[in-house]
Q: What sequence folds into this?
């Protein structure tokens, strides 16, 4: 009986958040170590299914940098980064699409659908649909260069998001799972930073919330001191940390993505440790929350 009462209390604690976010769009950027651990992948997939079944509209954006690098090494292809961006020639772009679109995306879609499957005939419970930025011109991109003007090949930045396909999927009860590949005006594919893609999609959809799943607990007052985690801060405070070089290099795209989304109308942005089991549920459905929240 005690265990049952504990479960009931947990459900009642979650009820206000279920009501608050019912029918709302939440963009989740999925990446980092959580993509490499099978148990963590299962945990995140089940969290996404629960979000969907209690009435939320999760939109998932994923990268796959470690897997791309692994395949490049297997193919004896040099892995090179400039200013945090992968140098992407034509052959590398083919590998990026093969890994992101053909492997990572389909595995994640399959995993979500497996958790969503209901014990009924007719294929019910299949909620996730995998797409990439070049499907129906979802992500129109333009060529990106470094601050020094160096040519990175087929590295792009988001020019605009065609939200029609996403809105149609959401309206029909599906969860879009988006690989961070874009398409240029001439039909060429571009490799785009997944944090940037997530921010632009959240902004275009006017999502209620954007969540970045990463390998650390959030933002710190001093990233060398892991006891200085910041639980909440404003856009101005976040911009100050960036200006004072107090945000580690790997967290910069996420912090900037949060700022971009918030300035475009997204209400809240979060950076969470995706290696914590059920990190999404802990953030959305509990009073304490986890990680760092950035607000206007």
A:
């Amino acid at each position: 009986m005690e265990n049952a009462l504990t479960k009931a209390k947990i459900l009642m604690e979650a009820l206000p958040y279920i009501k608050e976010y019912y029918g709302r769009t939440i963009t989740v950027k999925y990446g980092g170590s959580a993509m490499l651990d099978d148990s963590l992948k299962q945990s995140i997939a089940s969290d996404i299914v629960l979000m969907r079944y209690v009435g939320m509209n999760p939109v998932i954006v994923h990268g796959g940098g470690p897997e791309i690098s692994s395949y490049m090494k297997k193919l004896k292809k040099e892995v090179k980064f400039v200013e945090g961006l992968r140098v992407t020639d034509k052959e590398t772009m083919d590998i990026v699409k093969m890994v992101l679109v053909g492997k990572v995306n389909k595995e994640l879609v399959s995993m979500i659908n497996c958790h969503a499957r209901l014990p009924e005939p007719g294929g019910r419970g299949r909620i996730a649909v995998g797409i990439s930025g070049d499907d129906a011109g979802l992500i129109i991109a333009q060529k990106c260069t470094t601050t020094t003007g160096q040519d990175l090949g087929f590295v792009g930045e988001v020019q605009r998001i065609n939200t029609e396909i996403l809105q149609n999927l959401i309206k029909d009860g599906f969860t879009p799972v988006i690989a961070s590949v874009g398409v240029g005006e001439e039909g060429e594919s571009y490799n785009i930073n997944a944090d940037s893609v997530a921010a632009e999609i959240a902004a275009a959809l006017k999502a209620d919330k954007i969540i970045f799943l990463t390998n650390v607990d959030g933002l710190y007052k001093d990233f060398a001191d892991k006891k200085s985690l910041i639980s909440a801060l404003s856009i101005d405070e976040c911009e100050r940390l960036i200006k004072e070089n107090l945000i580690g290099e790997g967290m910069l795209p996420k912090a900037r993505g949060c700022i971009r989304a918030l300035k475009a109308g997204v209400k809240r942005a979060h950076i969470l440790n995706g290696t914590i089991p059920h990190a999404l549920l802990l953030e959305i459905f509990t009073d304490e929350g986890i990680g760092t929240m950035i607000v206007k």
